[in-house]
Structure formats: C-alpha cells, structure tokens
Design a protein that fits this description.
Layout (H helix, E strand, L loop, with lengths): L25 E4 L2 H6 L3 E3 L9 E2 L10 E2 L24 E6 L14 E5 L3 H8 L4 E10 L8 E3 L2 E5 L18 E9 L3 E7 L4 H8 L6 E2 L5 E9 L8 E8 L8 E7 L2 E9 L8 E11 L12 E12 L2
Parallel strand pairs: 1-2
Antiparallel strand pairs: 1-18, 3-6, 4-5, 5-18, 6-17, 7-14, 7-18, 8-10, 8-17, 9-10, 9-17, 10-11, 11-13, 12-13, 14-15, 15-16
C-alpha cells in the first residue's frame, strides 16, 4: 500500500483547481484570477517571452495566442470537486490536422516546446528547487474524437541539456533525465506517461499504481490508466496539475502527484526521479499530439484544443 503524500491539502475555493496545495514559497501564473488571490504569485502574460519558451518544434503547427470559444457550461468533474474558476480570456491553440500524428510523421499536429517560467521561477529551478507544482487548464473542441490516444503537456528535468528529448524510446543516459506527460486513450481514459530511470524499484512502484499500469515497448510506462477521464474536457475547461519532488541522490524517495480539477488522481512515491547529483527540475514539456506512431493513431479530422492559465510554484 502506498503511503499518503505530503501537500495534499486543497483550498475550498475555485482556485484549488490550479493550485491544490496549501503552502508554497513563491511562483507565477498567467491566470489573473488566481494571482489576485495569492500575494506570493506573480502574474505574467501568456507569452513565449514571459514564460521562457524555447526549443519550439520546427515541424509542428504554431501555438498562436487566441480568444478561445466559450465553454459549453461550468460542468464539474464530480460533486467533490471545487467550483471552477472563470474561463480564460486568451489561450494557446493547438491544431491537429486530419491525418496528423506525432511530430516526426508526414502530417505533424499539435505543438511542442519547453518552458522554464519567468526569471524568479527559472532561477529557483536552476538553484536546485527540490519540490515544484506546475499546471495549466485545457479545453478540447466540441465533437472531439479520441481515436487511440495522444499526449498532453507535462513536466521534465535532468542534467543540463540531457534533460531534453527524454522520450520516444531514448536509451542513452536515461538515468540523467525524466519526462512526465499525461496521455489520453480511447474514450478519454487518462493516464500518466512516464520516462524515469529504468531501475527495478521504479518499475515496481510504477506498475503498482491503480487501476492499471503497464510497461511499453518504447521504455515509457503507462501509469494509472483509468485513474481519471478527460471526456469532460470536451467543450469545458479542465485543470491538470503536477507535483514533482526530487529524490535524494542514490535513493528512491522521489514523489509524483497528478490532480485533475483539484482532485488527486495519481500519487506515486518511492521513485528515483533522476539518478544524478546535478539533476534538476527544468520546467514544463509543453507538447501535445495524436499518437503513437502508426496511422491508426491519427486524428480523423481537423481538431483543436486550447491551453491557458499556466502556473508554477516552488514548494521547497
């Protein structure tokens, strides 16, 4: 049985969706509503320059800042979820053309880049922050078709430039990087797709996550498949938030947690997040696409999704 994790307290107000912890040192948000309620949060615009966007994929469509369509309603994920905050006024738009799959395909879709946040947050990460919470809100267009699955933005880290591209079956220096992204499956079933050091303890801990977890042929792990659903993100804003606590060097005491609309859905402990003294949490891997690699994963039509209210805080 997994032990309870720290920092699971949530606030009984709408902003618990994006910030479901009770205390933190400092942070940033692109949500004006969240910034207005937290004096330790710096409000920054949803822009590449303000958020330290870099290594933008040259093959995927751009991520324009747009006025998103109004949501269908203010549906809540469950009766236990806090009420949602107001919908964002602006968002990054992801475009998935018909036939698009991953960024290396003939028809790439979605978008891909990395972000470190504004200077104070970035400096804290480079200074060795041990525990960080990052998240965003997303909305899928009405009539969304799931097909077999696809990736959503998450978090990444590691040693220097080795932290990048810790995905896609990479084997080289896997102990010096990590990448954690949500994935949707058929009918909106959600999971956390993880690339962590390939240690026996990590494998045991990841495969034990309920209700279903498995190792994949590309060396990533599907963790907690079915622990949440994203069907209510179709035409509605949904918050996805991650907490990463780095392990001490040589120990399996790292932690990962995922909230969806303020409810803790995946809680992992006893992990080696990265097996190097120099390893750091680097920021967010803001990547989304259909796939998989083969044509049966491809989007069956032109589809769009929107991402906003990017938020990050340093816990310690």
């Amino acid at each position: 049985m997994q032990e309870p994790l720290r920092n699971q307290a949530s606030h009984p107000h709408p902003h618990a969706h994006l910030l479901p912890i009770a205390t933190f040192k400092h942070g940033f948000t692109t949500s004006p509503h969240l910034a207005a309620t937290h004096p330790h949060l710096t409000h920054v615009p949803l822009s590449d320059s303000a958020l330290g966007v870099h290594k933008v994929s040259p093959r995927t469509p751009p991520h324009p800042l747009v006025v998103p369509p109004p949501p269908i309603d203010t549906h809540r994920a469950s009766d236990n979820a806090p009420p949602p905050p107001p919908p964002p006024s602006h968002a990054w738009e992801a475009f998935y053309p018909r036939g698009s799959i991953n960024p290396k395909s003939d028809v790439p879709g979605g978008f891909g880049f990395y972000l470190t946040g504004p200077k104070e947050f970035r400096d804290a990460l480079e200074g060795g922050a041990r525990e960080v919470v990052c998240g965003y809100r997303m909305m899928l267009q009405e009539g969304w078709e799931w097909v077999r699955g696809g990736k959503l933005p998450g978090v990444f880290g590691g040693v220097g430039d080795l932290a990048y591209s810790c995905t896609g079956g990479r084997q080289d220096r896997r102990c010096q990087c990590f990448d954690l992204r949500p994935m949707w499956r058929a009918k909106g079933l959600g999971e956390l797709y993880t690339y962590l050091p390939l240690t026996p303890t990590n494998q045991t801990q990841l495969l034990a996550a309920p209700p279903d977890s498995k190792a994949n042929s590309d060396y990533g792990f599907s963790v907690g498949r079915g622990s949440f659903h994203l069907d209510f993100a179709v035409g509605r804003w949904v918050a996805v938030v991650f907490r990463v606590r780095m392990n001490d060097h040589g120990k399996h005491n790292g932690e990962v947690q995922v909230w969806v609309d303020g409810e803790s859905k995946i809680s992992l402990h006893g992990l080696c997040i990265c097996d190097a003294k120099e390893a750091k949490i680097k920021g967010m891997h803001f990547q989304t696409f259909f796939g998989g690699h083969s044509p049966e994963w491809a989007s069956p039509k032109d589809q769009r999704a929107w991402f906003a209210d990017v938020t990050g805080v340093v816990v310690q």
